[in-house]
Write a structure and sequence with these properties.
Strand content: 15-25%
Distance between the termini: 31 Å
CATH architecture: 2-Layer Sandwich
Order of helices and strands: EHEHE
Number of helices: 2
Largest sheet: 3 strands, antiparallel
Shape: globular
Structural class: alpha+beta
Helix content: 10-25%
Strand order of the largest sheet: 2-1-3
Number of strands: 3
Number of domains: 1
């Protein structure tokens, strides 16, 4: 192909998703943990987000594991 595209999905863009819910308040937490929650799309209690299941997202969830819970793990 002249355009250089192989027709494959980008690395890490598999069909797997993971749903996380915020269960803890970021108040009185280090700024790094607050920023990680924002990076996950969470900033209020009981808010849920469905995200691509990538190593980066898994690392973020691990970092704030005491503030979130995995609701649904598809894939």
């Amino acid at each position: 192909m002249a355009s250089g595209k192989t027709g494959k999905a980008p690395k890490g863009a598999s069909g797997k998703t993971i749903t996380v819910e915020q269960i803890g308040s970021p108040s009185r937490r280090p700024a790094v943990q607050q920023q990680t929650l924002v990076g996950l799309g969470l900033n209020k209690l009981h808010r849920k987000r469905t995200l691509q299941d990538t190593p980066a997202v898994r690392g973020m969830i691990h970092k704030v594991g005491h503030l979130v819970r995995v609701v649904d793990d598809k894939g």
